[in-house]
Structure formats: C-alpha cells, structure tokens
Design brief:
Helices cover 20% and strands 31% of the residues. With 255 residues, the chain is of the alpha/beta class. The protein binds flavin-adenine dinucleotide and NADP nicotinamide-adenine-dinucleotide phosphate. The site of flavin-adenine dinucleotide has 20 residues, from β4, β5 and α1.
C-alpha cells in the first residue's frame, strides 16, 4: 500500500482478557470517517514490509479513538504481533473504512436482531452506541455465541454501554442473549444460533415472533455460522436485503 493511503497512529492501550482474546485502542485521525458496522485495515511491520488485516471498529462515531476486539489465532501472523502491542507503539491505519453491515440500509422494520459469534460482536458494539439506531428500532436483541465461558466478555462489554449517559434511557429496549456452546452456563443457551432460530427457542426467550414486516437481522462472525444462520432464516421465509430488492437480512463474514 502506498504511503498516502494510510496514516501512522499510536496505540493508546491494549488489554488481554484471556490468552485468546484482547482489545486495543489507537488514536483516530480527525478526518477518519466511518459508519458503525464498518471495519478498518490495520498494518504492522513484517520483515521489510507490513502485514495488513481487517478489524471491525467497536468504538462509537463520537469518540476520538478507535477500539478493536481481537480473537488471537495460534500461529496467526498478525495475531502474534497484536498480542505484543503496548501503549505508545505505532500502527498503520488505512485512511478508508470499509463494509456494508449497516442497519441504516434497512428502510423499514421495528425490531433488530444482531447475531454474532466471537469477534463478530465488535461492529454491533459500535452500532449500539449510535443514537440513530435507537430511533430506527423499538427493540434490539444482541445474541453472542462463544465456545467457552471465559470468552463471554460480551457481558462485560454490554454492561459498559451503561457508562454512556446518552444511552441510559434506551438500553431498557436492549435484550442480550448469551450463547456458550461448549460449557454449561446459567442463563446462557448451549445450542448454536441456527438451531436456536429453527427450534423457536430464541423467539421464546426474547418474547416476540420474527416477522417479515417487523424484524430485521444483522449477522456477523464465523463464515460457516453466517451461512448456516442465513439458511435457517431463509427457511423461515426471510430474504437477503439488497438495495434494489429490500429484504430482512444483512450479513458479513467476520473473517
Ligand atoms: C471484514 C472483516 C472484519 C474482521 N474483524 C475482525 C475483528 O474485529 N476482530 C478479529 O479478531 N478479527 C477480525 N477479522 C479477522 C482478522 O482480519 C484476521 O484474519 C485475524 O486477526 C487473524 O489474523 P492472523 O494473521 O493472525 O491469522 P490469519 O492467517 O489471517 O488467519 C488464520 C485463520 O484463523 C481463523 N480466524 C481469523 N480471524 C478469526 C477470528 N476473528 N475469529 C476466529 N477465527 C478467526 C480463520 O480460519 C483464518 O483462516 C476480520 C476479518 C474480516 C474479513
Ligand atoms: N480454542 C482455543 O483454546 C484457542 C486458543 C487460541 C486460538 N484459537 C483460535 O481461535 C479460533 C476460534 O475462535 P473462536 O472460538 O472465537 O471462533 P469460532 O470457532 O468461530 O467459535 C465462536 C462461536 O461460533 C460457533 N460456531 C462455529 N461454527 C458455527 C456454525 N456453523 N453455526 C453456528 N455457530 C457456529 C461456535 O460454536 P462451537 O463451539 O459449537 O463450534 C462458537 O460458539 C480458531 O481459529 C483457533 O485457531 C483457539
């Protein structure tokens, strides 16, 4: 990538939740524009060049930093480098933000269901901080599936939404549904997301039925989960949303 396409930013902090999960924040250039749901391209030095990877922005549009959540991959080239970053380190940031996982693309619908696995929760955390989203939808459901209990940092992240005073009056309309597929956890489902949709357990839990008129879905995470969840929704009569052919589902592979 040529130098005029990226800026050099500083790491503000980094935090390890587990051996596999971390978060970090970097300085945000004044002219860096993004829509909640989009991802950045981040670069770190590798041999004589740089290695670039996509990371969804978890912070809000109003904040002067950019925050990311990372699932560290054993022996992954970028993961090995990211696991060692610390305050003051330099990272490269592609000046453009990318992606179409944008709820504003839906022109109708009352209830929004966000379906995430692993780091796929990041774009939804950014969106939940957006006042316009709460004007667009009456009820919002955030479903987050992880394999093991210690990966369920989303409970902590959802609680942190309460630190935003402007969200105080709207968060009563958010339902958080944790899914932990390989441990028994009280209050969490153990079945995978597509099974929860097909069996009707998810609707039962949240207390309303999915309908074409009222319900809109955003899916992000493991590509196989995205495909399987999409199929389970197709079987229920929902369709992919396209700008010229409105439907109920927008999805993005989280890696
Ligand atoms: C649109 C988009 C947004 C992304 N946003 C994020 C994000 O917010 N947080 C994040 O951690 N990663 C995200 N990724 C993945 C990220 O770009 C890197 O691929 C990841 O950090 C691993 O890089 P690596 O070089 O260590 O390993 P790689 O060699 O790139 O990956 C090795 C393998 O690890 C698996 N893998 C990669 N990423 C993940 C993941 N996040 N969770 C589980 N398995 C994975 C895949 O099977 C992949 O083939 C995103 C990817 C895309 C395309
Ligand atoms: N596990 C470790 O100890 C460890 C340590 C370091 C690094 N890693 C790396 O981390 C990566 C995995 O990260 P991750 O656990 O965040 O992501 P993941 O494998 O995508 O799992 C996240 C969630 O998605 C679910 N899921 C997977 N496929 C699905 C499908 N087709 N339909 C519905 N749900 C599905 C999983 O359920 P299931 O649990 O049922 O699969 C789990 O609940 C691996 O690539 C590995 O290299 C793992």
């Amino acid at each position: 990538m040529t130098e005029e396409k990226y800026s050099k930013e500083k790491v503000l902090w980094s935090k390890k939740y587990t051996d596999k999960l971390m978060a970090f924040a970097i300085t945000r250039p004044e002219n860096y524009q993004f829509k909640p749901g989009q991802f950045s391209r981040i670069g770190l030095p590798e041999d004589s060049g740089f290695i670039w990877r996509a990371y969804s922005i978890a912070s809000s549009q109003n904040e002067d930093f950019l925050e990311y959540y990372v699932v560290l991959i054993e022996e992954g080239a970028m993961s090995q480098r990211l696991s060692q970053i610390k305050e003051g380190d330099e990272v490269l940031l592609d000046k453009t933000a990318f992606g179409f996982l944008l709820p504003e693309r839906f022109e109708s619908g009352k209830n929004l269901v966000m379906l995430a696995t692993g780091s796929g929760i990041a774009p939804f955390l950014s969106q939940l901080k957006l006042a316009a989203l709460w004007e667009q939808f009456d009820k919002i459901v955030l479903v987050h599936s992880v394999s093991y209990q210690d990966e369920l940092i989303s409970s902590e992240l959802v609680n942190k939404l309460h630190d935003y005073p402007e969200l105080a009056s709207v968060l009563t309309r958010l339902q958080f549904v944790p899914v932990v597929t390989r441990n028994e956890v009280e209050g969490a489902f153990k079945e995978r997301v597509p099974a929860l949709i097909t069996s009707g357990q998810l609707e039962q839990k949240i207390g309303f039925e999915f309908t074409s008129e009222d319900t809109r879905f955003l899916i992000c995470g493991n590509p196989k989960m995205v495909q399987d969840t999409f199929k389970s929704l197709l079987d229920r009569g929902f369709a992919m949303h396209r700008n010229r052919l409105p439907g109920q589902i927008i999805m993005e592979n989280g890696f």
